[in-house]
Design goal:
This protein has 150 residues and is mainly α. The chain is built from ten helices and two strands. Helices cover 60% and strands 5% of the residues.
Length: 150
């Protein structure tokens, strides 16, 4: 049995890796895979028991390899791997920013007093939330924080 022809994405990965001046070892390390597996995917085949078998990367593996060499999702799609391109896009999507401020702080964020309390670095969040509640209650009662403290 002769060596199977590599899929189009294999040649593309090799081309971009060479252009990035990365060795197989360096690229595999960046992708978090073994040098042997990188070579199998890039060559499009592996040898087992004296026979050649075709190798094609899963979408996730190919996306990691593409990221390691700087290959963009559009070129993966052109090579017929829209599945890996979708994974690569998801990998490169900025992480969602979580807002861990309590609801009352988010609702009153434009209030300079609330913002000042919440931005105190040396105070635990529960203490800051208690102060925000106290500040807002005092304002509701028409009492200024300075008069209440004095």
């Amino acid at each position: 049995m002769r060596k199977p022809d590599p899929p189009s994405e294999a040649g593309l990965i090799r081309l971009v890796r060479l252009a990035a001046r990365l060795t197989v070892t360096q690229a595999a390390q960046k992708a978090g895979i073994s040098k042997a597996r990188w070579s199998q995917v890039e060559n499009g085949h592996e040898r087992r028991g004296g026979l050649w078998y075709p190798v094609s990367a899963t979408d996730g593996l190919l996306a990691r390899m593409a990221e390691a060499v700087g290959l963009d999702a559009g070129r993966l799609e052109q090579a017929g791997r829209a599945d890996a391109a979708a994974v690569l896009r998801e990998m490169n999507r900025p992480a969602a920013v979580t807002d861990d401020r309590p609801e009352i702080v988010r609702r009153h964020w434009d209030d300079p007093g609330v913002r000042e309390i919440w931005l105190i670095q040396s105070m635990p969040p529960a203490t800051k939330e208690g102060l925000v509640h106290a500040l807002l209650e005092q304002r509701e009662q028409g009492e200024s924080p300075a008069r209440a403290a004095g």
